[in-house]
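Reminder to self: tokens first, then the designed residues, so the page reads top to bottom the way the pipeline ran.
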């Protein structure tokens, strides 16, 4: 498998679109262990949900980039994220909280997590190393 260009989709910023984002990831990633695809789908679910819950845009962009040794999923809120502080201040919720554990899940699954702020929007990229996940 050689280097592939990134593939993206822009979806309505609605909870009902999370399943569509998951299907997009599954269809886009090729020749990868199914367990890695499952992890990528969980990651995109959590990041997309965060973009919908904390963003004020009508759309969310999902980008999948696959390389021979890694796959990354990027979720771009594509607009203002009012009330969201710097990523260094984000905390994972307590175990008894109803929500707030998504970023902790993503941090646990991803080999690398990059959070960028571009103006008012957040761009979060989670990368999985295919070598580290081989044969899990």
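Designed residues (136 positions):
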């Amino acid at each position: 498998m050689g280097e592939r260009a990134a593939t993206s989709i822009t979806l309505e910023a609605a909870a009902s679109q999370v399943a569509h984002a998951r299907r997009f990831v599954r269809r886009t990633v090729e020749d990868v262990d199914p367990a890695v695809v499952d992890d990528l789908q969980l990651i995109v679910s959590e990041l997309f949900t965060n973009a919908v819950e904390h963003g004020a845009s009508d759309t969310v962009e999902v980008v999948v980039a696959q390389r021979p040794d890694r796959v990354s999923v990027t979720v771009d809120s594509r607009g203002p994220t009012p009330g969201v502080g710097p990523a260094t201040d984000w905390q994972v919720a307590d175990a008894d909280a109803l929500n707030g554990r998504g970023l902790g899940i993503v941090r646990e699954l991803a080999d690398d997590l990059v959070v960028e702020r571009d103006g008012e929007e957040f761009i979060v990229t989670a990368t999985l190393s295919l070598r580290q996940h081989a044969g899990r």
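Helices lie at 18-28, 34-54, 102-109, 130-133.
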